[in-house]
């Protein structure tokens, strides 16, 4: 990816979100805003952040592409740390079935749901998956996303899981957004393994995971730890093996039933546990003590008409909370960052500041990347968004509409 030199000058607010690790509890309210600020990016890396009057004394504008941000707020690019962005086919009819009262898990049990996307993803060519994923990334970029996590999990076999991960590498190479890859081979139980979940986990451990790990095809290993999918013991077995092979781990945990996924995330030292609608107080406490990021996905709760995760409780009790879209073809088909901001602030009782932290430095922490992205600090990647409005308060206030006017990635203006 190319790297550029840009001077973003005269912003009404530079919302730095400053930090190099997750923000816990009360720390999430601190955005560290510089009024009348500027940001200097050289060779794709942030070189200076400060008051405009100080910056313009030190730097020669001729050395940079200058963006006049007068009357605009500037923030770090958003980090969408949980998506399933590579998939074949769609499940629009399932959405309509759910409106008529069908249940998400029951649809899966009768062979639809995730399994229907598995069929379509197996049938899709790499080129089809590539172009569909590129379009989704374009949409994400328009919302100010500069780093996204993408999961496999619509193959449940060696070839298709690898096909998905290879497509992610290709889109990462060819799109301005950075794509962090997660192996989610244990996303559902394929029909041939129904009732033989332990054998499926053995297959993943013996035949798939080593190839993914050796080929460095993914940074993370994830699993759908849920009643009627994979148990806590099965999840522990797979994720421990992934850790032995040098991978980092995260979990779809305690989404529909309280199973102890949060406790398992703490036990394993997972980087994040995601969903957590039903997580226990004790599990959340253990996650806090172990520094596991709680990644909340309110778009999914909204789309499935579930109750929201207890964001307020988590933050008041000191957890580090991240927000993400969970973009996928079933439970939550949206790339919309504005939608998630609306749900987080209006329904989950998060403040605007906490929601911004959750989509920047804590999103980065959910990918174990808080030392390189997620804030406007010297030495970090030059990933910056410029709003069309003077203050970050406009982000949730302009309900459901993107306030992002420009996106800079590695010091290159990539969306305008
Ligand atoms: O995070 N919960 C499991 N996995 C996804 C849904 C995937 C799908 O329905 O295709 C989720 O919600
Ligand atoms: Fe998910």
From TrEMBL:
Record Gene3D superfamilies: Metal-dependent hydrolases (3.20.20.140), Urease, subunit C, domain 1 (2.30.40.10)
Cofactor binding: number and manner: Binds 1 zinc or iron ion per subunit.
Tagged with keyword Metal-binding: yes
Binding residues annotated for N-formimidoyl-L-glutamate, in chain numbering: 154, 328, 330
Cofactor section: Zn(2+); Fe(3+)
Record's subcellular location: Cytoplasm
BP GO annotations: L-histidine catabolic process to glutamate and formamide; L-histidine catabolic process to glutamate and formate
Top-level enzyme category: hydrolase
Source organism superkingdom: Bacteria
Pfam families per UniProt: Amidohydro_1
Sequence positions that bind Fe(3+): 82, 84, 252, 326
Keyword Lipid metabolism in annotation: no
Single GO MF descriptor: imidazolonepropionase activity
EC number of the protein: 3.5.2.7
Binding site for Zn(2+): 82, 84, 252, 326
Sequence similarity: Belongs to the metallo-dependent hydrolases superfamily. HutI family.
Protein role: Catalyzes the hydrolytic cleavage of the carbon-nitrogen bond in imidazolone-5-propanoate to yield N-formimidoyl-L-glutamate. It is the third step in the universal histidine degradation pathway.
NCBIfam families the UniProt entry points to: hutI
Name of the protein in question: Imidazolonepropionase
Name of the gene encoding the protein in the UniProt record: hutI
């Amino acid at each position: 990816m190319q790297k550029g030199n840009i001077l973003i000058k005269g912003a009404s607010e530079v919302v730095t979100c400053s930090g190099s690790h997750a923000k816990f509890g009360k720390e999430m309210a601190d955005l560290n805003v510089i009024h009348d600020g500027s940001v200097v990016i050289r060779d794709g890396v942030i070189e200076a952040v400060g008051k405009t009057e100080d910056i313009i004394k030190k730097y020669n504008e001729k050395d940079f592409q200058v963006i006049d941000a007068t009357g605009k707020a500037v923030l770090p690019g958003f980090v969408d740390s949980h998506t399933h962005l590579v998939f074949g086919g769609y499940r629009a009819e399932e959405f309509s079935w759910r409106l008529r009262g069908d249940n998400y898990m029951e649809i899966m049990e009768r062979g639809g749901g995730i399994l229907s996307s598995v069929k379509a993803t197996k049938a899709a060519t790499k080129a089809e998956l590539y172009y569909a994923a590129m379009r989704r990334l374009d949409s994400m970029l328009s919302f100010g996303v500069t780093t996204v996590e993408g999961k496999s999990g619509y193959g449940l076999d060696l070839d298709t899981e690898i096909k998905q991960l290879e497509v992610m590498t290709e889109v990462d190479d060819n799109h301005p957004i950075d794509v962090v890859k997660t192996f989610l081979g244990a996303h559902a139980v394929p029909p041939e393994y129904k009732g033989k979940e332990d054998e499926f986990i053995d297959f993943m451990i013996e035949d798939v995971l080593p190839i993914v790990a050796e080929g460095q095809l993914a940074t993370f290993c994830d699993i759908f730890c849920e009643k009627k999918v994979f148990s806590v013991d099965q999840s522990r077995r797979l994720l421990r093996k992934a850790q032995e092979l040098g991978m980092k781990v995260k979990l779809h945990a305690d989404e529909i039933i309280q199973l102890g996924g949060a406790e398992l995330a703490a036990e394993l030292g997972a980087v994040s546990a995601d969903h957590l609608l039903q997580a226990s107080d004790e599990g959340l406490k253990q996650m806090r003590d172990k520094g596991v990021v709680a990644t909340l996905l309110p778009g999914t709760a909204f789309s499935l008409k579930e109750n929201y995760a207890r964001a307020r409780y988590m933050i008041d009790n000191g957890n580090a909370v991240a927000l993400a879209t969970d973009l996928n073809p079933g439970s939550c088909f949206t790339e919309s960052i504005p939608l998630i901001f609306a749900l987080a602030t209006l329904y989950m009782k998060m403040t605007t500041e906490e929601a911004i932290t959750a989509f920047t430095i804590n999103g980065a922490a959910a990918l174990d990347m808080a030392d390189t992205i997620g804030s406007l600090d010297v030495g970090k990647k030059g990933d910056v968004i410029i709003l069309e409005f003077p203050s970050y308060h406009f982000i949730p206030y302009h309900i459901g509409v993107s306030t992002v006017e420009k996106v800079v990635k590695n010091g290159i203006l990539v969306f305008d």
